[in-house]
Specification:
heterotetramer, A mainly alpha, B mainly alpha, C mainly alpha, D mainly alpha, A: mainly alpha, two-stranded antiparallel sheet, two-stranded antiparallel ribbon, 23 helices, 5 strands, D: mainly alpha, 13 helices, globular
Chain lengths: ~625, ~210, ~475, ~300
Amino acid sequence: MLVLVASSIGWYALFCLLGGTLGGIYQLDWPMPFGPALFAVDPLSALFLFPLFLVSGCVALYSLSYWPAAERSDSARLTLFVGVFTAAMVLVLLVRNGVLFLMAWELMALAAYFLLTTEQHNREAQKAGTIYLLATHSGTMALFALFSLLHRVTGSFLLPAPHSLSTSVTLEAVILVTALIGFGGKAGLMPLHFWLPGAHANAPSHVSAMMSGLMLKMGVYGILRTVLLFVDLPGWFGWLLLVLGGWSALNGIALAAGQRDLKRLLACSSIENIGIIFIGIGMALVGLQTGAQVLFICGFFGAFLHIVNHGLFKSVLFLGSGVVLHSSGTREMDRMGGLAKRMPVTAALFLVASLAICGLPPLNGFVGELFLYLGALYDGIASPLPVLALVAPLLALVGGMAAITFVKAYGTIFLGTARSTVAEHRHAADGPMVGPMLLLAVCCLAIGLAPLLLVRMVAPVVRFYSGADVNLADLGGLQIPLMPLTALNLLLLALIVVLAVCYRLRLHGLPKAASATWGCAYQAPSPRIQYTGTSFSEMMVNLVGYVAAPQRLKPVLAGFFPARTATFSYRPVELLLDRVLTPLFSWIGLAFSYMRRLQHGQLHIYVLYVFATLFVLMIWAH
Amino acid sequence: MNSLADQLLVLVMLINLIMLGSSRLIFSIRAVAAQGVILGILPGLIHPFSLHLTGITASVILAKGIIIPYLISDAVHKAHIRREVEPFIGYVPTLFLGAVFTALAFVFAEKLPLAPEHKELLFVPASIATLLTGFLILTTRRKAISQVIGYLVLENGIFVFGLLLTEAMPFMVEAGALLDLLVGIFVMGIVINQISQEFSSLDTSRLRALKEE
Amino acid sequence: MLYALVLIPLVGALLAWVIPDNRTRPLVLPVIALAHLVLTLLLLWHAPPPSANGWIWLDPLGKLVLLCISVLFSICAFYAVGYLAYRQERSNRVLCMGLLVCLAAMGLVTVSQHLGLLWVALETTTVAMAPLIYFNKNARSIEATWKYLLICSVGIALALLGLLFLAYSTYVAQRDATLLLSSLMATARGLNQGWLHAAVIFLLVGYGSKMGLAPLHTWKPDAYGEAPGMVGAMLAGGLVNCAFLAILRVYQVCLASGSSELLFFQRALVGMGLLSMAFAAVFMAKQADFKRMLAYSSVEHVGILAIGLGLGKGALFGALFHLLNNGLTKGVLFLASGNIHRSYGAKTTDIVKGAMTRLPWSGGLFMAGFIAITGSPPFAPFISEYTIVSSAFAEGDYLVAGAFLLFLAIVFIGMALTVLPMVMGTPSDTTPPTGYRDSVLMVGPPLVTMLIILVLGVWPPAALLGLLKEGVALLGVQP
Amino acid sequence: MIDIIIHCTVALLLPPLLLGVITKTKAAFAGRIGAPLLQSYYDIFKLFRKGSVFSTTTTWVFRAGPLVTLAATVTAALLVPLGRHNAPLSFDGDMVLFAYLFGLGRFFTTAAALDTGSSFEGMGAAREVTFSCLAEPTLFIALITLARMSGSLRLSTILTYPSPGLWLATGASMLLLVAALFIILLAENCRIPFDDPTTHLELTMIHEVMVLDHSGPAFGVILYSAALKLLVLGAVFVNVALPVSTGDSLEDWGLFVVAMLALAVGIGVVESVMARLRLLRIPQLLVGATILSAFGMLLVLR
């Protein structure tokens, strides 16, 4: 509840800032030897604050009925950490002191850890939490290095002013790489994404919404903030971001397509969306470096819009998954089905968000991607070697796979009939939880229909980077089609409405009948005969087997009537985690256990250590 | 006087070697006691007479020559052991190592500049050699008692060096050091008693429960 | 007034010896502790001038260590009342006396300006601690005590030889041996280099083994693992800091003697510090015994202290601050781990699971302590560790800084893999319940400490920062 | 203005005829007389008068599927130039919207298929999304290549740019692009060799199996949308493959209609002489098309 109040205060503040000059600075004399505690709002932080307040407010509302304090004993802890988490994220966006930034950052990471391990007795959640904590803390070590290096360059712990930092090529490279490791890991950029699916899948759903919709963005924010500091960036950095972004987008969605766990699927799709955001940032940086203004503008607009958009629709999806979880009692999609009949509102909202995440018009996902396409296409016609143009087919492929993923998710969960008795018998209704989801979904639609609203909000941020005003109407011969887009989207909606009315009128006068689904003459259909989500995506998963690499256990069937115990199982494998990191860790553990024999318990050898040290030091001193 | 001091120091070093080679516990304790007595006599030989000096001589002889050996042999009696030093390495190799260390001590002492009046004396090599002997005993012997003896020898080595400074050092510090040593040995004695009760043996190689697997 | 620092605890020890009743005896501890704390705060507020011969004086470094010890002891004292109420089956006379004697000796360490006196006091703490480690009186604790006693004694003996070398170096140079810090520092430039060099090495090894720098740390896991929680806290937060103070004194002498000696000492410190962190990292991975894990964590943090000191410059602030932070955080961890140990009757992670469910307070405190000690904000150790790292970067010691961060990460991973299943997770049904329940006396003290650590990490009082700055100034850097 | 009216008229009225032409061609190959050319119109009209059967498992998504698909296809039809005439609506980057509108339609078609809970329809939907996902990049590479030649990002400019002169200048590249586009055309419209709309075995179908449960007006809408899609994508192909212009607007319209009919005959011929590919081969062919178009792009860059 408090979070709600806080977020409304935050909203108020944000509106004040947006109305004002967007340059609030607040300074506090911190007794630590790291300089004053400086807080400031600039367009970049405002961009992130907008979805942050919106989503956290909605999440707070949602949690009132999702995790009712009366029924769940751990709700006090949960609420506390939700508050800490939100506050820490706000702090991350506001502080301009490196050390304070680290503090806020780690506070956020830790709060997220406690949130996601709320379900104390869930072994899987604990394991995911551990992996998350290890990953995030290791990333923080990189950030230690990053801010120390910045301190070395500037001599102050305060973050330098935008576009003011210039240093040697090597140091610059090191700073950027540490930032990429630290922030990229938090953002879930491949190959540092391994913690993400488990973490998002096992957290309570509204927490997943915040983690995916907001916390990942903090990593993006970090990269953007770092990039902003430099006078000029090395050319390779933009390309690196572009390649990593493309790689994440493609593999993220491939991973998502192969999942059977709804929340894992959503988590993997977050990797994809982060990839898309990084494609945008990479494109913009390449544009900045080569002086191609269109690329720069399109890239940044695309990335920034997608940051906000992803925050919105991914939250709806995660919140929706929470409702689904409540009613079906399982996260496994292949056991669900037919929920749309019992919770029509949730189903509709989930559908809107699914369409948005696939980047389909007339929703907001399309707007961000459109900018990226425009950038790529412009590169295709304008640049002598249009490598960036390849972004367009890549995005198309990613979009196609996203469609597979979300048709699968939506279809298996909400459509058809219930596949298992578990899913059938649970109490299910839309409930008050759909309120916040509705608000977010309406935002998605509004942005999709009138992208100009959001573009206006994002424009100051792009200006912040370029230093000059942005005229979207004419960018070196390219016009950003915002108004035509609105018109066409409205046309599309109007067409749909007209058709629907016509159809309804038409149906009215015609005979209607209801019967079972045509089973191709099969006489005894059962719910289990339905196509499962796994089968739905199998064809694609096989094509991208190198990432998704599912493990299939096929039973050996013997005799005419094989035993009932022989079941087929399918488990998607996390390539990096299961095949690389886990073996690596156990190998290191083995190596360490050999080294641990140094502590063998024999006192006289310990004394020998003492004297050996003495001798070594003597010899060294000589 | 100085030649006498040197002879005594040679004696100290010989005792070192004897201890390395001896297999009997009680004998080792007596050897340490003898070493302690010599250490008590030594300051009187190199420094002019003073009250301070008498005090030191008396207390060192008392502590190192009488009380501590008594404490240890008491522990030995209580634990019902007479013999067997039980080294990890055989006596001959230990002796050989002891000889090598003594030689090394001389080399080491050569490297360090001494005050003019100490130039002729064997204090530094004797000190280092005794220190190293103590270390050898500590690392090669199996019995807890032997390790205490090793520690004592080590302390003696340090004390030999301290003799060079007896005059310069304040009495309080010396006394404190001695007292600490005394209490330390006393506590060690108690612990040894407990060990022998708990394990019915003083073999420290049995004290190996606390380790990393 | 300075003498009272030593006398009050000794009076307390006497009282503890006299009081016959096992139940009322522990009450002496908090009384003395409070008196000591008040005295300490008074002394911090207004330090008396040096004693006539210059032997006794409370300088900023001493103040810092004294503060840490006094606070830690107060906390342990209150905790001890609760703890000993659970351990009525055996006499606590020796324990109470030992703690108080130890406090007296540690107080003496902090006020000694004479290195010889400091050595004597330090040796006293070593001896006084031995019976405390042996409190449980079983095979394992006797083994631990024996190892502790022997290695620390050997180490402290080597330190004595180092002191003699140091004195001899003054003797060779000016025919007048002295171990008084002020005169040593005044004449340090003229000291004989060879002897000084040897002295520094012996002192480093000697005090290093007392402090627990790898590879001289071998006694630590055994002693920490077998001692009761509060004794572990005093070992890790008190004894270590006393030994570190001794090393600081050596550092001061090196600093005064000129660059070459200082450089060597600093390098040796950094080398041993990194080695300690590496050892800790290796040994903490898959550590099943959480008390031993804490011991290795102590090795790690001793390494951090050494590195901070070795790096000098800006890192000195971090090192001094870390001294305080590490002491207090270790206190919390040991006390909480003691509670968990009591409650489960075991200290291995195969039995201890889900402490947060079974003991919400102790489990939570252990978790918070873990987060703090691994250098996570908003707790104070983050500030000190980060200061050290950033100053390493600022000085261009990229290798040291990189290794430091790497080891921190490995340590975190290793520690997390032990702590998380132990604190979070589900308690197994097979663990038999014990009589232990979280009580105010056993949870309150560590909770207060945790709050102090939090405050220190977010908004430390200006007076403390001033003290730290004075300390740093003594070590050669003008902030 | 006249062009826009003609555009709308052609786009709305011509599509079913194309289906008729294809059927007629196939019948001719098979030596039959075949259904009348206007059979598709009859079918659609008849369906609009028929009653509907709805499966009890379905929800509103099932009903919305055909309608949204039609709306999206009609909108897309407004974006693509037919023949040498600019499209009614045109702006920079309209090709992205063009492609995504089809995506929207596909999302709803497949969702409607899943709504029935039939395993066959699920199967068809899975194939549909997978194949179109693979086809999409090809379309974009081809469009980028054409955009680079014409220097514009508007479909109207891009697709009216090709000329016989361009063919002469960059013949090889154009040939590759046309081949790629033809493959896309067949794949997107579910024609042989990708899909056989007339087969009788549900297991092997893609598009037809998805709409098994639709009936009455909804099925009519589906048939019509499919035909419209054929026209729209066919127009893209024809604009690139047969870039002939007479200079007169009305004659050009005539030319376009003739070209579309010719294309329909061509499709009919392909369907008659080829067998359907094995389902597992289809991705390979689609990837092959991507490579073709990429190669075409490389040739243009050179």
